[in-house]
Specification:
- The structure is a single chain.
- A hairpin with a 2-residue loop joins strand 5 and strand 6.
- The protein has 300 residues and is of the alpha+beta class.
- A four-stranded antiparallel β-sheet has the order 4-3-6-5, sandwiched between helices. The protein has a two-stranded antiparallel sheet with strand order 1-2.
- It has eleven helices and six strands.
- 11% of the residues are buried.
- The protein has three domains: 61 residues; 58 residues, no CATH class; 91 residues, Chitinase A, domain 3, CATH 3.10.50.
Amino acid sequence: MEVLVRVLALLPLLFLVACPPPPVPVVPGDLAVTGEKVATVDGIVITQDMVDAITWRIPPDQFEKIKGDDAQYKNMLDQIMFGQVLYKKALDEKIADDPAVQRKIAMSVREVLAAQVIDSVGQKAVTEEAIKAAYDKHAVQYNRPSISLKHMILPDKAKADEVVASLKAGGEFGALAQKNSIDGGQNGGDLGWVERGRLIPELETPAFAAAKGEVVGPVETSHGFHVMFVGDVRQNTPLEDVRESLTEEVKREALNAYVDKVKGEMKVEWAGAATKETPADGAPAAPAATDGAAAVPPGQ
């Protein structure tokens, strides 16, 4: 009897050991606060990691331009902070308890993960070997002579001769172009690297015959009198000058191949109104996609 009493006394403890504790409720959107603090709004800390997570789909060069514009960047941060305040209100009002909202949250998570797969495929494809192969593929296109060229156009020969004399005496091309060129001398007349075949023949012939550091002109055309300066000469376009465009090309080709592969392996079974089969007589046809949208949402 005494043994039975002891066993019965231990039963509650055994029950507690056998049963795991109830799971901690998951708060939608909850995350650890990491990264440099950017601002605080209504007690909510906004960090750079949070900003990066929200803006990750913005191309890096575009995002840098936004950050370089104080007003535009502040407006973006204002929108982010407003969104976080609304998020807090949604939690307070228990909006996430609504099954329909939970489905939207779940589908949003799926969309982010799917986008990350695509992003990962593109990033992994970009190797030095792949970029070099893409460069070699365009060897004919890049194997063209080009010159680093500055240009201005003057109203008459007398003015053009005066400018040429100033340049040969050590005058700065950009300043002279902005002061005298009838096209305004934008960017100091700097055209950057110009490949053979991009200029009109009257200008291309003397420009490409010139040596590095040589002043060319005046050359008369129907537009006026042209004065040029050849800053440098090269026989082909180096890889570094086109690395960015080649990187995008490598990503694009890898993504296209990956998408084609995944779609080719998809096994789709249409059901109900979404069937692609011809409907029976008198049966309503499947709803057609409009404006290029799919009839079935992604993830289904």
